[in-house]
Amino acid sequence: MEFNATLLGQAITFAILVWFTMKFVWPPLTNMMDERAKRIADGLAAAERGKQDLEAAEKRVADELRTAKQQATEIMLAAEKRASQIVEEAKEAARTEGAKLLADAKGQIDQEVLRAKEALREQVAELAVVGAEKILRREIDAAKHADLLASIKAEL
């Protein structure tokens, strides 16, 4: 009977141990395992969301880079066009200034030519008077000769 009583005591002890474990030990262990499984699932979901967010961000970055490159190209083209316009405006201003300077120079030359012609007329008139005076020393009438010299001067 000793063997049966021991076996019966062990069976009762085992049953109490199983009941105690099922009642007090097992629920917290299953709760911890469920929480851990939930955290792992949440972590995997967050990793998947992070991966999707990363792909979306990479796509946005690629789009922004493409847009920035396009804008940079447009800005460069606009700058080159503006530079060409500035060069053309400068050339036109230089042409206008050159034409103005040329016209001023021509005007000054024309004035100098007129002054030279006038001075030459004066000198020719004086020479004519001197020559006529030498030739006609005897007969000089100042009024007649002044009219004659004025008409010669006008013809020159």
Automatic annotation (TrEMBL):
Where are the annotated coiled coils located? 44-122
Q: How does it sit in the membrane?
A: Single-pass membrane protein
Cellular component GO terms, alphabetical: endomembrane system; plasma membrane; proton-transporting ATP synthase complex
Q: Which residues cross the membrane?
A: 6-26
Q: What is its main location?
A: membrane
- Localization annotation: Cell membrane; Endomembrane system
Alphabetically sorted, this entry's keywords are:
ATP synthesis, Cell inner membrane, Cell membrane, CF(0), Coiled coil, Hydrogen ion transport, Ion transport, Membrane, Transmembrane, Transmembrane helix, Transport
Gene Ontology MF: a single term: proton-transporting ATP synthase activity, rotational mechanism
Pfam family of the protein (one) = ATP-synt_B
Subunit comment for this entry?
A: F-type ATPases have 2 components, F(1) - the catalytic core - and F(0) - the membrane proton channel. F(1) has five subunits: alpha(3), beta(3), gamma(1), delta(1), epsilon(1). F(0) has three main subunits: a(1), b(2) and c(10-14). The alpha and beta chains form an alternating ring which encloses part of the gamma chain. F(1) is attached to F(0) by a central stalk formed by the gamma and epsilon chains, while a peripheral stalk is formed by the delta and b chains. F-type ATPases have 2 components, F(1) - the catalytic core - and F(0) - the membrane proton channel. F(1) has five subunits: alpha(3), beta(3), gamma(1), delta(1), epsilon(1). F(0) has four main subunits: a(1), b(2) and c(10-14). The alpha and beta chains form an alternating ring which encloses part of the gamma chain. F(1) is attached to F(0) by a central stalk formed by the gamma and epsilon chains, while a peripheral stalk is formed by the delta and b chains.
Please state which protein family the record places this protein in. Belongs to the ATPase B chain family.
Instruction: Please give the NCBIfam families that the UniProt record associates with this protein.
Output: ATP_synt_b, PRK05759.1-2
Q: What exactly does this protein do?
A: F(1)F(0) ATP synthase produces ATP from ADP in the presence of a proton or sodium gradient. F-type ATPases consist of two structural domains, F(1) containing the extramembraneous catalytic core and F(0) containing the membrane proton channel, linked together by a central stalk and a peripheral stalk. During catalysis, ATP synthesis in the catalytic domain of F(1) is coupled via a rotary mechanism of the central stalk subunits to proton translocation. Component of the F(0) channel, it forms part of the peripheral stalk, linking F(1) to F(0). The b'-subunit is a diverged and duplicated form of b found in plants and photosynthetic bacteria.
Q: What is this protein called?
A: ATP synthase subunit b
